[in-house]
Specification:
There is one protein chain. By secondary structure, the protein is an all-alpha fold. It is globular. It has one domain.
């Protein structure tokens, strides 16, 4: 494994659509950039925390991996369907009140039930970092760098939503239905 393959893996996993990225896009569309960034900060802190936990407890977690992954998969599936339903039924009127679900805390908690993030954080350190260098400084620096890549991905989704907000708002109900369908599809794909 080399640095190039690590970076390619990180960029593909963090920039491609997943539950957090889809919620960020929906949040920008429905609640604005400021709320989306608040959610993004929470998601980033949790993403970094999950990477740190993975790096420190990797050996112990591998023993319990199948059980942890199944539980997270079930919780994640239920949560993604819940989010899809919330996005689908979101009020699309111009006077829609600001929803309090797009907070730092909700972004933070989303990462702990996001199967894509759980799988990524459990695999990236042992697969790409530890075989090259298992020293604490190298693992810490890698976890920090990967967290920055994740933050960049989240901010990219915020920017995408902000740039295309006028178009997205003109077709808000259709966009919400499409986002809800993508989120539901992501929940189904977990089991394939």
């Amino acid at each position: 494994m080399n640095l190039t393959s690590l970076l390619i893996y990180c960029f593909i996993v963090t920039f491609t659509p997943g539950p957090t990225n889809i919620v960020i896009l929906s949040t920008v569309n429905n609640l604005g950039t400021k709320k989306a960034m608040e959610y993004t900060y929470g998601a980033t802190v949790a993403f970094g925390l999950l990477l740190a936990v993975s790096a420190m407890l990797n050996t112990m977690l591998l023993t319990f991996l199948p059980k942890i992954l199944l539980v997270m998969q079930i919780i994640g599936t239920i949560y993604m369907f819940y989010l899809a339903y919330q996005i689908y039924k979101m009020d699309t009127s111009a006077q829609a009140s600001v929803n309090q679900t797009a907070t730092f805390v909700s972004g933070f908690l989303m990462q702990f039930v996001n199967p894509k993030v759980i799988l990524f954080t459990m695999t990236v350190i042992p697969s790409y970092v530890l075989p090259l260098d298992s020293s604490m400084p190298a693992v810490t620096l890698s976890a920090f760098a990967i967290t920055l890549i994740g933050f960049s991905a989240f901010v990219t989704w915020v920017l995408f939503g902000t740039i295309f907000k006028q178009f997205l708002q003109a077709h808000r109900k259709s966009v919400n239905v499409i986002i809800a369908l993508f989120l539901g599809f992501a929940a189904i794909v977990l089991w394939m």
